[in-house]
Design goal:
mainly alpha, 0% strand, Cytochrome Bc1 Complex, Chain D, domain 2, globular
Length: 130
């Protein structure tokens, strides 16, 4: 039975019908286009989160580059539904927003941002006594 399961898994992997483990479901190239696109009457994502999501226009705007795709997708869906509140984000991506996002847009943008180099860092205190 175990060998049948392994053979089946090998066939699926060889056929390319299984996505890479841990890879986000979206298309990063399409995500980059959507992230940078400015819709009529709205703002691009990059206008606040800057190029590749690695910057921000102010201290209250989060850095998005390198964040996990599933977290980014969840957050964008929460803004879109109104479950998560941020006046600017809800006005942009909410149901009646000026930059509405489809599920595919969210998956693509999340995949793009997750693939970017993070500008976040963890403070490493200086080690003493070594």
């Amino acid at each position: 039975m175990k060998s049948v399961s392994l053979i089946g898994l090998a066939v699926l992997l060889a056929s390319g019908s299984v996505a890479a483990i841990g890879s986000p479901p979206g298309n990063p190239a399409l995500g980059k286009q959507r992230f940078e696109a400015t819709p009529p009457g709205g703002q691009s994502c990059a206008s606040c989160h800057l190029k590749s999501g690695a910057g921000a226009i102010d201290d209250s705007t989060p850095l998005l580059a390198g964040q996990p795709a599933d977290y980014l997708a969840m957050t964008l869906r929460q803004y879109r539904s109104g479950e998560r509140i941020n006046v600017l984000m809800n006005a942009q991506v909410g149901a009646d927003g000026t930059n509405p996002l489809t599920d595919a847009d969210i998956d693509n943008i999340s995949a793009y941002l997750a693939a970017q180099r993070s500008t976040l860092h963890v403070h490493q205190p200086e080690r003493r006594g070594r």
